[in-house]
């Protein structure tokens, strides 16, 4: 049996968003209103503002632009983004698991932020439960420390049977300088949802009807019991990443690739697709699971 929440088969429209951003209410440099304008002007349809330890309200309404409440909570370098959190809570006396549990109790969605930057190992993450996913890419961690990619963490967790989603997030602080690129507008998720309402967007996100990207676009995915087909913007590599040494890379040797079909061998357990364009930018699908 193949299990995959295919956003291309879901009714609705595509919405571009980012789920991890800071403002002047914590250590960001854009005000809440400015950050909405910056993202709206670049074609994003929604953002979640996730200041450290507090929920930010935006005073103004922006037409056709959704602002989801949230916060980034944590202990030391363990950070978790609580998307949809309406009110902050005190975390000092709580363990990492209790923070995740409280986010769930408040009907918000916990995403483990930047595992690589945090120095978390997949064994640390395996001890935790009830989070919907991890940041497979965090733009500010890449721009500041060169530690933005947590795809190995994701694969190790998937290999141990955790069914979790992968998110690309900016974690915008907007503090470029002479040797540092800006961390705003470097990644996004594309969500298929029935409308641009908080309820519809969050429902699609928690169910996995989205893909993540730092640039490339996915145009279609078709999954059947013995093959996976993907169509994309022009890319250099299309990787079908799976358990241990299984899966396969397809590379455009003379010209860039636009589509490929992968034959499922039957022993993969999970397969996720990662594509890379000629400038190194990537996009990630959520995993296809083989359940028996
Ligand atoms: Zn953080
Ligand atoms: Zn952050």
Brief summary:
Strands 1, 2, 3, 4, 10, 11, 14, 15, 17, 18 and 19 form an eleven-stranded mixed β-sheet that branches. A five-stranded mixed β-sheet has the order 5-6-7-8-9. Strands 12-13-16 form a three-stranded antiparallel β-sheet, with no helix packed on it. It has helices spanning about 30-40, 95-105, 115-120, 120-125, 140-145, 150-160, 200-205; strands at about 1-5, 15-20, 45-50, 65-70, 70-75, 80-85, 110, 135-140, 165-170, 190-195, 210-215, 220-225, 225-235, 235-240, 245-250, 255-265, 270-275, 280-285, 290. The protein contains seven helices and 19 strands.
Top keywords for this entry?
292 residues, five-stranded mixed sheet, globular, 19% helix, 19 strands, alpha+beta, eleven-stranded mixed sheet, binds zinc ion
Question: What this model shows, in words?
Answer:
A hairpin with a 5-residue loop joins strand 17 and strand 18 (282-284). The strands form three sheets. Strands 1, 2, 3, 4, 10, 11, 14, 15, 17, 18 and 19 form an eleven-stranded mixed sheet that branches. The protein has a five-stranded mixed sheet with strand order 5-6-7-8-9. With 292 residues, it is of the alpha+beta class. The protein has helices at residues 32-41, 96-105, 115-118, 122-126, 139-145, 151-159, 198-207; strands at residues 2-3, 13-21, 46-49, 66-68, 70-75, 78-83, 109-112, 133-138, 165-169, 188-193, 210-213, 218-223, 227-235, 237-242, 247-251, 257-263, 270-276, 282-284, 288-290. The mean pLDDT is 97. Bound molecules: zinc ion (ZN) (2 copies). One zinc ion binds at residues 20, 22, 72, 113, 171.
């Amino acid at each position: 049996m193949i299990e995959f929440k295919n956003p291309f088969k879901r009714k609705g429209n595509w919405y571009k968003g980012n789920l991890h951003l800071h403002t002047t209410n914590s250590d960001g440099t854009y005000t809440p209103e400015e950050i909405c304008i910056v993202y709206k002007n670049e074609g994003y349809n929604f953002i979640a503002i996730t200041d450290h330890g507090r929920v930010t309200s935006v005073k103004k309404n922006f037409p056709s632009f959704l602002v989801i409440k949230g916060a980034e909570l944590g202990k030391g370098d363990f950070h978790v983004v609580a998307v949809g959190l309406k009110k902050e809570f005190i975390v000092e006396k709580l363990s990492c698991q209790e923070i995740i549990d409280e986010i769930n109790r408040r009907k918000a969605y916990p995403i483990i932020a930047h595992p690589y930057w945090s120095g978390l190992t997949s064994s640390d993450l395996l001890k935790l439960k009830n989070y919907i996913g991890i940041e497979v890419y965090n733009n500010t961690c890449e721009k500041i420390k060169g530690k933005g990619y947590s795809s190995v963490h994701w694969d190790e967790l998937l290999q141990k049977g955790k069914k979790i989603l992968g998110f690309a997030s900016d974690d915008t602080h907007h503090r470029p300088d002479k040797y540092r690129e800006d961390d705003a507008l470097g990644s996004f998720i594309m969500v298929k949802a029935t409308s641009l309402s908080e309820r519809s967007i969050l429902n699609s996100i928690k169910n996995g009807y989205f893909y993540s990207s730092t640039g490339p676009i996915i145009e279609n995915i078709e999954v059947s019991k013995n093959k996976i087909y993907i169509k994309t913007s022009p890319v250099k590599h299309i990787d079908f990443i799976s358990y241990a040494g299984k899966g396969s890379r397809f590379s455009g040797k003379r010209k860039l690739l636009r589509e490929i079909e992968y034959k499922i061998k039957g022993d993969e357990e999970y397969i996720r697709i990662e594509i890379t364009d000629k400038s190194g930018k990537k996009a990630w699908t959520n995993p296809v699971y083989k359940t028996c």
